[in-house]
Every structure is written in C-alpha cells, then in structure tokens.
Design brief:
By secondary structure, this protein is an alpha/beta fold. Among the domains are: 2-62, 2-Layer Sandwich (Phosphorylase Kinase, domain 1); 674-808, Beta Barrel (Barwin-like endoglucanases), CATH 2.40.40. It is built from 26 helices and 32 strands. The strands form eight sheets. The protein has a seven-stranded mixed β-sheet with strand order 6-5-23-22-21-7-8, with helices on one face. Strand 29 (730-735) and strand 30 (738-746) form a beta hairpin. It is globular and about 75 Å long.
C-alpha cells in the first residue's frame, strides 16, 4: 500500500521496543526508509487495532538521541564510563578472542549467559550458550520468579500449560460457533491493563465483560479491574495458597466439584502409602517382584481388587476401569511386609479439611463469608476461567501455591473447554522460546549439562527448565565452588536496576569477572560495568518469529537504524565462530528449520503475516485429552507420568517435596518474624506495574516519561496520616537490608498495613559512571529484598512479602 510516498507494512510486535512479550499486529508507516508512525492493525485477531502507549511511542524509541548505534569497547576502569566506538568486526574478533581464552583456560561452563524476561531471546541465547559449550544459560531473577513456577506446576500437574480461553484460537473470535463466553473469570494477582500480555492481551477482559462475563478479583490492591468486579478479595500478600485451599474446602464440602471429570481424568483413585515418614505413591514394584518402578496402583471397586496403571515412556494403557475415589486399605507387599494405604482422593480431602473459611480468614485477612461466596461464584459458573499473575511466582511458597490454584480448574473440569482454561501449546508446534530442559535449538552432551549450576540442588531445576539457578550462580561467582565463573554474556537484561535482588552483590559480581558483554539498545547501569556493549535492533529492524501460543506470526524487518543488529544476527555470527560445523548459515535458514512442523518457510509465513492452527491440530483446543491429541501415543489422557491430571504429584514426590498443596508462611511476616515486625511494621510488596514502562525500560522516552516522572510508593491515607506523610512528599522506605527514597502516592486502593513499591527505576538523565550509575542506588527497591531466599524447589523469592518502615525524608 502506498500514499504520498508512505509505505504501510504489516508486522508483529515483540521486543526490543515495547518490551513486553508481544503478539500485537501493527501497521508500520514508512517514508524515505524511516518509520514515521505505528498503529494497531484492526484486522489482526490478537489486538484488533488496539496498542499500548509503549508501542505507539516506537518512533521516539527507535530514533532517540541516546540510543546505542555502534559497538563500544571499554577503555577506562569498569564503571568509569569511558568507552570507544569500534566496528562490528572488531567487536566480534575481541569477543571471540576473550571468550575462547576463557573456554580454553577454565572450561565453557565458566561463562554465564544471562537473559531477561520473555523477550525475543530465549531460543537465540540458549543457542549461543550451547554453541559455546556452556550449560549455564540463566534468567537472573532470584528463584526464577517469573512465570517458570506456574509453567512448571501446570506441566507436572496436567502435562501442559493453560491460559484463559478468550477466543484467541479463533479467527472470528467471540463470534465463532465453537466458542462460549465465560460466565465468570477469576483474575488472581494481575492488573492486566497496566501490564505485559504474558501471552494474553489484557483488554480481552473488557471484551468479555461487554459480552456478559463477570469478574472475580483477588488482589491486595484495588486495581482498575477490581473496581469493576462482582467480588474483590483483598488478601495479605503471600497467603494465596491458603485462599485457594479455602476455595477447595468449600467446593468439596458443598459438592461444587465435577466428580465425573475427577473420577475419569485425575489420579484420585491411586493408592498412597501412609505408614512411612513421607507418604509415597504405591507402585507395581511394591506388589510383585521385579516390577516396574514407574507404574501406579489404584483400587477398582468393580472387582474389589488393585489395578496397575502401566506407564512406559508416559504411555497410558488402561482407561476402562471404574476407580474407587475413597478408601483405606491394608496390603501385603512383595517382600511380605504389611502396608497401609489410602487413595489420593482420601488424602486430598483430609488435606483440604483443615482449610476452613475461618482458618483461612485468619491467615489471609479475607472475611469467611467472602471466601465462601467467592468459591461458590467460581465453582458454579459454567464455564469458569482463572487468570493468574506474577505475584504467584514471587513468593518462596510458589510451588504449593501454584499447585493449589491450578487444581481449581481441574476440580471443576474447566480445562481445555470453551471459555475455561484452554491448554496452550506452541502454535503449529513451532518452538522459538524453549521452556523445557533440552528444548533448545542445539543441545549439549549429558556430561556437560551435569555442570549446570543448581541442577543438583533442586530436582525441579534439573528436570523442568534448562536454566541455571540464579541464586546459586551468584553464590558461585564469589565462592568459586565447584568451579570458577570467569565471564558473563548479558542480553536483554539489566540486573543492576531490574532483576537482581541485592543489586550491589550483582554489581560486585560483574566487576569480579574477567570479561563481560552486554547487548542492549541504551546505556544502562548494568551496561556501564561491561567490557563490550553491542547495539541491538528493535523489532522493526529485524526478521523473527512469534510462536508463543497463538497465532504463529512473522516479524518483518522494516528499516535499519545505525549499525544496530538483531539479537538473532549477533548470536548466530558468534555461534559460527564458537562451534565447528554450526548448522545454520543465516537467520532465514534457521527460521525455515524451526517452521518445518508447520510445513512452511519463513517467506511463506511473511506472506501470510499470521496463522491460527486449524481444528483438529494438537495446538488448537478443545477437549484434546479425550481425542488423544495430547500424548505421543495418541491415546486419551494427559502428558504426565500417569496419563492423568495428578492431584497428588508424582514429580513433587520424586523431588522430595510435599505432593499435596499447602500454605507456607512467608519468611518475613507478622506471623513468622513478629519481633522484626515490631521494628518494621508494614508489609512491603513490590513490582507495581506501570503502563508507560516495561520493567526497567523506557525511562528516557518523552511520551512515556511524562506519564510518570518519578517512582512512587502507594500508601493508604490512614497510614500516611499516622506517619505524618502527605501526598507527593519524598519518603524513605527502609528495612534491615537498605533504604530508598521515593514519592508518596497516598491512595485508598492499598491496604492500611501494606505499602506497594515500584521496581526497575533508574534515571537515564543522571550521571552514568560510578558511583551514581544513573541514580539507581537512590530508588532501586531490590536493595530491600534478599537473594538466596528461594523456595524449597529452587523457585520463588520474597519479592512480594518483605517488611519495612516508612518515614518522611529529610530536606
């Protein structure tokens, strides 16, 4: 399309640029090889013409005067801010020389490959790490506390991930005859209009509400969407598991669960030994000599006998028996000893029994009648869907919390049904962002992967995700045990201002290393400490793919800015230098290989821009567990060891964790640390999202920064009055770890005993060299949050549940 020399090109958003997890279709207006305007594509099924202010500001972002446009080499001491421009050949040669020397002298595992959150990088940085030979690809947030805990629990519970079905799998969207509008959507811990999509476009809820959906909101803050909810539960941060178990208690007591679904599709009839220190699923090897150690035993009331669920490489072989849900049985084992057993469902009900509305109310601060009412609303709605947010990940008890919430849609049968929680797979099985261990474009030999940091400390880290565990990485940089860390490749990450808890430790860690590279678009506090800085391209300056849930989409290069290169191009060039016989000559060849499962080339996809899988494809709902579309053997069931939804988790049992959900008090709270609470009498919850910014990005963009000039602390009017604080005044937020100074935002949306701080703040307009580092130490709330407080599975951290005191700043 052309008009007065303006060419309009359709493409898809992802990072860098708007920063978020992307997916929106846009129309890019180009004149004289320069982008002059970006607007939403009204024909795109995802956003239907709507865009956030970050994307609308792309022209200011791309052509900002401070944008990095050439590679830089440090020429002064680290932190002095002295760099010189070099060519790409010089940069690649220097990186190749330095990193090969580290590899030769210390082994490839001594370099960490550090990425940020769900940007367009996971496939490309893991590819680079493995081409170099390092198993230590890492996301640097303590406890990997961003989506990974939820993804892991969904994976080990039901074999796949799931998200709210807002008709995103249909080209006709809400008008598709297969689709059903949810009667209720429960939004648990996320303020969608002000946050990133996470594979979900926030304004879909507005679409659903216009069509009759009612919302139930669970959040310590009265968010915009909470103000429009049928019911809002204002819970204490970190007590979400107790609330979910309170729901389960009510649902079981009042027979609000889907017993037909539970009997047929969960492991409720499986037997668990209860006469040991730790309960354990009964297996075939317990009943006969030389039996398999992966088969499960259940009770069949028809024959009053015990049946084996045979599972060989996750092949479910018996689906026609009618299992007993409850019971307690004494058995004689193969070795002649006696064993006491109960069915999973019996134990499950006993576990839920203790979480009465009254008991849960004392834990969560939510009134008992509201707990009962909310449980009824969720369970009685047909269909009902549940959306959960980052707060579930950012607590040390993230695993039992995620498990309890995941069970809500399993107990009601709202899984992979129209208008429920649909199983979400990569569109057309095209994987560009690997989640599971071993899912990268390249792979490493088992003996090399055995050196991955943290995998021998936590079974969940070993078996689920291929990342190194960040808390253990930071510890090892200083300890050198079991081997020294000598280098770090930092790409799409800013640990000093964003992901790093105790950021001064991260500063010292980076400065301790022999060689560091940062790939970014602007100078940041983290980049200021690195040896080489490479200028990355925005999504409008690169070719790429978007295959996160749906649709499968092409990202098309529209223009060039300076000497910037895409993350994919940078990494692919270095892969060829680090790895003999690297299999890809260019990015399009790589894309074509990734698209083989969709039976197309990258050019084919560009011609279409986006594609939604057809009916009957394993990556499109509904009821795939009935049709054999979820398992490799094509049999009905789920991609779990038992072939069933595992209410009692065999994976958690294997990792020596509690197989059933439970409430665990945060490490710092009025309950767990009452003496500390006397000195620091407010709960500090962090990570309040701001629409104009994505994490630590966009502070230098005029249209975005004018929406919010400074970081703020939300504080209730009664609390502000108690401490003599007025709206807009500077206040100090302090605990035993540190102190920051921000502005008070006095507002009734927050609970009187809680204050809410923002993360990711720094000031690009301030001095960049040390010690200032763009003013990051004045405002970075991560200084008040510890590292190495991950949960028992190596996941989660106390990001939402610290303690603090607040007082008026001097001067």
């Amino acid at each position: 399309m052309k008009d007065n020399g303006v060419k309009i090109i359709k493409t898809t958003t992802w990072s860098p640029g708007p920063g978020c997890h992307g997916g929106c279709g846009i129309l890019v207006h180009v004149k004289d090889n320069k982008v002059i305007k970006v607007e939403g594509d009204p024909d795109h099924p995802w956003n239907q013409g709507r865009l956030c202010s970050r994307c609308l500001s792309m022209t200011q972002y791309m052509y900002h005067k401070d944008r990095l446009k050439k590679p830089l080499k440090r020429v002064g001491e680290r932190g002095q801010g002295k760099f010189e421009e070099i060519s790409w050949d010089e940069a690649f040669d220097l990186i190749e020389e330095k990193m090969k020397k580290i590899r030769d002298d210390h082994g490839p595992e001594s370099v960490i490959f550090h990425q940020g959150t769900g940007r367009d990088i996971g496939g490309w940085i893991s590819m680079l790490a493995y081409a170099y030979g390092s198993p230590n690809w890492m996301f640097g947030l303590s406890g990997i506390s961003c989506y990974t805990p939820r993804l892991m629990m969904m994976s080990i519970t039901q074999g796949d991930f799931a998200v709210v079905d807002a008709s995103q799998w249909h080209e006709k969207r809400y008008d598709d005859p297969e689709y059903q509008i949810p009667e209720t959507v429960t939004i648990w811990g996320q303020n969608l209009p002000a946050t990133c999509p996470d594979g979900f476009f926030g304004h879909w809820y507005i679409d659903l509400m216009k069509r009759g959906t009612e919302v139930l909101v669970i959040d310590p803050r009265c968010t915009w969407i909470a103000s429009r909810a049928k019911l809002w539960l204002q819970l204490r941060p970190g007590t979400d598991a107790a609330l979910a178990l309170g729901f389960i208690h009510v649902m079981i007591k009042e027979d609000l669960i889907n017993m037909e679904f539970i009997k047929k599709w969960t492991n409720s009839p499986f037997l668990v030994r209860t006469d040991q220190d730790s309960p354990a699923l009964l297996r075939e090897s317990d009943l006969k000599e030389n039996g398999s150690d992966i088969n499960f035993v259940a009770h069949d009331p028809v024959s009053d006998s015990f049946v084996v669920w045979e599972s060989d490489n996750q092949v479910y072989q018996k689906s026609d028996i009618k299992p007993s849900m409850e019971g307690e049985f004494n058995l004689t084992l193969a070795n002649g000893s006696k064993a006491k057993t109960k069915t999973v469902w019996t134990l499950y009900k006993e576990n839920a029994e203790q979480y009465t509305p009254e008991a849960v109310s004392k834990i969560t601060w939510v009134a008992p009648d509201k707990i009962i009412k909310a449980a009824r609303i969720y369970a009685k709605s047909k269909p009902s869907a549940l959306h959960w947010g980052l707060p579930i990940d950012t607590i040390p008890s993230t695993v039992p919390t995620s498990q309890a919430i995941n069970h809500l849609w399993c107990l009601t049968g709202n899984l992979d049904n129209p208008g429920g929680n649909a199983i979400a797979r990569y569109a057309y099985d095209v994987v560009t962002y690997p989640y599971h261990t071993g899912g990268s474009i390249l792979s490493l030999p088992p003996d090399v992967m055995e050196k991955r940091i943290g995998m021998h400390d936590y079974g969940a880290i070993k078996d689920f995700r291929a990342w190194a565990q960040p808390d253990k990485v930071l510890e090892q940089i200083f300890s050198g045990d079991p081997y020294e860390i000598k280098g770090m490749w930092i790409q799409t990450a800013n640990p000093i201002a964003c992901t790093g808890m105790e950021p001064k430790k991260w500063r010292d860690a980076i400065k301790k290393l022999d060689f560091t590279v940062c790939v970014d678009l602007f100078m940041t506090p983290t980049a200021m400490l690195c040896d080489v800085i490479l200028p990355a391209a925005t999504f409008l300056e690169k070719d790429s793919l978007k295959a996160w849930w749906v649709p499968l989409q092409a990202i098309k290069k529209v223009v060039e800015v300076g000497d910037c290169k895409s993350d994919i191009e940078i990494n692919l060039e270095l892969c060829k230098r680090f790895m003999k016989d690297f299999p890809y000559d260019n990015v399009h060849q790589l894309f074509d290989t990734l698209l083989e499962s969709a039976d197309m080339t990258y050019k084919d996809l560009c011609d279409k821009t986006w594609m939604i899988p057809p009916k009957g494809h394993p990556s499109k709902p509904y009821f795939r567990y009935e049709k054999g579309l979820l398992r490799q053997d094509k049999k009905p069931g789920f991609r779990t060891p038992s072939g069933k939804i595992e209410l009692y988790s065999s994976w958690l049992e294997k990792w020596e964790l509690d197989p059933l959900p439970y409430h665990e008090e945060p490490p710092y709270s009025p309950v767990s640390t009452p003496d500390l609470f006397k000195e620091y009498p407010l709960i500090l919850s962090t990570g309040r999202r701001m629409g104009p910014f994505f994490h630590s990005e966009h502070r230098q963009i005029p249209w975005l920064r004018e929406q919010q000039r400074d970081p703020v602390l939300e504080i209730h009017p009664d609390t502000a009055k108690k401490y003599g604080i007025a709206h807009g005044e500077k206040v100090c937020v302090e605990n035993w770890l540190g102190k920051i100074t921000v502005k008070a935002l006095v507002t009734p949306v927050i609970h009187p005993d809680i204050v809410m701080a923002e993360h990711g703040w720094w000031f690009p307009e301030k001095e960049g060299k040390e010690p200032e580092l763009f003013g990051v130490w004045d405002v970075n709330v991560n200084q008040l949050i510890p590292m190495s407080h991950e949960g028992k599975a190596g996941l989660g951290s106390p990001i939402k549940t610290m303690l603090c005191k607040v007082y008026k700043a001097k001067g």
